[in-house]
Design a protein that fits this description.
By secondary structure, the chain is α/β, with parallel strands linked by helices. The chain has helices at about 10-30, 85-95, 110-120; strands at about 1-10, 35-40, 60, 75, 100.
Length: about 120
Amino acid sequence: MKLRVLYHGHCLTASASAATFTRFLSGRIHTDAEVQYAGLLHRPGNLLFEGNMFDGDENAIVDFKYSPSEKLTWWFDHHQSAFLTPADEAHFRSDKSGKKFLDPDRNIGHGIYCRRSPRKVRLQ
C-alpha cells in the first residue's frame, strides 16, 4: 500500500506533523504502508497542487492548505487560512470520511492527531 504524505515544505512543525501522522497510520491502520513524502510550497497564483501529486493508494496533506481532490484521503491542518476558496471550505465541511481535520485553535498541527484521530477514526 503506497501512502503519499504532502506537507508544508521548509517548515519544522510540518515535518514533525508528517512524521507523527506516518507513525499513527503505519502503526494503527496500514502496517504495510510504503510512505513517500513531498514538501509543498506556496506559489504565485495559488498553484499549490499538481495533478500527479496524489499518486498513492492513500494520500495525505498535513499542515498545509486543503485540496478538494477526490484522491485526498487524509487532511490535518491548524491554520485559519486553510482554504483557498469558499468552495474548498464547503467541500471540506461536507466530507463524511472522518479523516479530515481542522483545528485552528492549536498552534502546532501534529497535536491534532493525538487529540482527534483515536476518537474519530475507527482503528482496525
